[in-house]
């Protein structure tokens, strides 16, 4: 069982501090989602884990060793970091064969991973003819080549079609179920909540969260209940008398903040309200993530300025 341990990791690029004393561990047997706004430092952290760059200070170890000291790196760690990196004039099969030979990996693995990634039938084509999604599948095939215990996947769903997204989700779940250590960065919150057990969140190079998915969502969202009854006004008075925070959409449906279904159901029964709709909102990872990272985004779009006659004169 091989963990990744990042301890006090700082990476300075000139005046830019991409990582600022980050410490976390990625454990085997689960999928860890690696989240953070653009420029938060996720790719930098992954590059440091596989020795593609040197930290300014701190360490990243895999099973207790720095990547450079691993006896058999390709069999220990598989990484998808830059799907554009493969040489375009080679065929996909030749590319994977060269990697296998370099890593002393049995040739039979080449066809296995091409099959597994769903590109065996197009593996004779030059990589430069590949779409983004096909390159992504090729990158995943090469990450799997050494049957590694640890997988680092930087935005693996990027460019994949819906079938591909389902495939990568199931692949990550099965790799974790086999006891492997799987770290996956993504900007797709719906996707991440479908595959991750645990989350590590960075913001501006610092660690913002390192927590199980369910705990993360409940810590950063407020439960909400929707209630619609036959008498909107009496409902409003009852909610107000209870001291609850609520808002109405104008169609007689009230949204009650920080409430649970049982409590609101009991209130409606007590008040003799005829309930037409009573439901709890499923808190989403997206809401939790946006609540946590508000103020942590380096790049934010501003609404286009509308010129008023005063402003333009
Ligand atoms: N080689 C480099 N030279 C200079 N600055 C860099 C370099 N690599 C990354 N940075 C900077 O470090 C910061 C972190 O970048 P990084 O790519 O790790 O973020 P990220 O979380 O992966 O972002 P994204 O979600 O946009 O991929 C950014 O401000 C980036 O511009």
Automatic annotation (TrEMBL):
Family, according to the entry, reads as follows:
Belongs to the ABC transporter superfamily.
The segment(s) forming the ABC transporter domain are: 4-229
GO MF terms on file?
A: ATP binding; ATP hydrolysis activity
Superkingdom of origin organism: Bacteria
Record keyword DNA-binding present: no
Q: Name one Pfam family in it.
A: ABC_tran
Name used for this protein in its record: ATP-binding cassette domain-containing protein
Keywords, comma-separated and alphabetical: ATP-binding, Nucleotide-binding, Transport
């Amino acid at each position: 069982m091989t963990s990744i341990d990042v301890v006090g990791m700082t990476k300075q690029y000139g005046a830019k501090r991409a990582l600022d004393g980050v410490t976390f561990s990625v454990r085997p047997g689960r999928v860890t989602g690696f989240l953070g706004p653009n420029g938060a430092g996720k790719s930098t952290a992954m590059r440091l884990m596989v020795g593609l760059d040197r930290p300014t200070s701190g360490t990243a170890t895999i099973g207790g060793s720095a990547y450079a000291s691993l006896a058999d790196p390709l069999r220990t760690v598989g990484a998808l970091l830059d799907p554009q990196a493969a040489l375009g004039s080679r065929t996909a099969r030749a590319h994977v064969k060269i990697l296998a030979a370099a890593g002393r990996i049995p040739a039979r693995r080449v066809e296995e991973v091409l099959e597994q990634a769903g590109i065996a039938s197009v593996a004779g084509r030059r990589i430069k003819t590949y779409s983004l999604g096909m390159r992504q599948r090729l990158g995943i095939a090469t990450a799997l080549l050494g049957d590694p215990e640890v997988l680092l996947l930087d935005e693996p769903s990027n460019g994949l079609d819906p079938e591909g997204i389902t495939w990568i989700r199931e692949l990550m779940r099965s790799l974790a179920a086999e006891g492997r250590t799987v770290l996956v960065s993504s900007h797709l919150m719906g996707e991440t909540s479908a595959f991750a057990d645990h989350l590590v969140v960075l913001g501006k190079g610092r660690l913002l969260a390192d927590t199980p998915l369910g705990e993360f969502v409940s810590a950063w969202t407020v439960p909400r209940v929707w209630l619609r009854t036959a008498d909107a006004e009496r409902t409003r008075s009852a909610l107000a008398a209870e001291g609850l925070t609520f808002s109405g959409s104008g169609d007689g449906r009230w949204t009650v903040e920080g409430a649970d279904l049982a409590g609101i159901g009991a209130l409606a029964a007590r008040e003799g309200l005829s309930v037409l709709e009573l439901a709890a909102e499923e808190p989403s990872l997206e809401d939790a993530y946006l609540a946590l990272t508000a103020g942590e985004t380096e790049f934010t779009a501003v609404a286009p300025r509308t010129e008023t006659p005063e402003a333009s004169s």
